[in-house]
Amino acid sequence: MPQHRRIDADGHPTVAELEDSIRTNQPSSIGLLAVERKAVRDVIGYCGLIDGGRGAGGEPELAFELLRRVWGQGYATEASLAVLDWARSSGYERLWATVWEWNTASRRVLAKVGFTETERKEVDAVYGTTLFTTRRL
Ligand SMILES: CC(C)(COP(=O)(O)OP(=O)(O)OC[C@H]1O[C@@H](n2cnc3c(N)ncnc32)[C@H](O)[C@@H]1OP(=O)(O)O)[C@@H](O)C(=O)NCCC(=O)NCCS
After folding, report:
1. Separation of 109 CA from ligand 1 center, angstroms?
2. What are the structural domains of the chain?
3. N-acetyltransferase domain spans which residues (predicted)?
4. I want to staple 32 with a disulfide (CB 3.0 to 4.6 A). Which of 42, 48, 94, 100 is the partner?
5. What is the DSSP string of the chain?
6. pLDDT digit string, tens, across residues 25-79
């Protein structure tokens, strides 16, 4: 993961800091939501919409990240479909998602929920190429 996504040498952000940030930034029509399993009632990650700074015309980006122990059970796909419904009901007409070219699992999730890859790419010599994908709602 790029440096800005890592826990720093002093242990920040801590779980408490992340919890505080989530609680004080309640989503309206944009934001990250906790993914909670209905049967177990545990939180297994986040999925939601982030401000599409890189997307055209202020359209939001879909983002998701789940705990490793729950990967491969369709949860990211299910959560993304729920977020697509939310985005549609909020009036957005199109979403974007950026993904590392090497991130096969994430690219597969995006394909399963209807995102298509565009011509747009950003190449980083250290971390690899970022692909820009989009989906009409
Ligand atoms: C990406 C991520 C959210 C996927 O979550 P998940 O719940 O495992 O996703 P799903 O189970 O819904 O779907 C994963 C798909 O990728 C496929 N897949 C996973 N790893 C794969 C690999 N190495 N090669 C090929 N396919 C792979 C799975 O088979 C599945 O596709 P299928 O349904 O056609 O079989 C999870 O891996 C994660 O949190 N990764 C770290 C954070 C991250 O990369 N976030 C996205 C940033 S763009």
Report:
1. 6
2. 3-136 (3.40.630.30)
3. 1-137
4. 48
5. --GGGS--TT-PSPHHHHHHHHHHS--SSSEEEEEE-TTT--EEEEEEEE--SSSGGG--EEEEEE-GGGTTSSHHHHHHHHHHHHHHHTT--EEEEEEETT-HHHHHHHHHTT-EEEEEEEEETTTEEEEEEEEE-
6. 776 788 889 999 999 999 999 999 998 776 666 799 999 999 999 999 999 999 9
Residue list, ligand 1 pocket, CB within 6 Å = 64-66, 71-77, 99, 103-106, 108-109
pLDDT for 55 equals 60
Closest by CA to 76, choosing from 59, 99, 53, 92, is 99
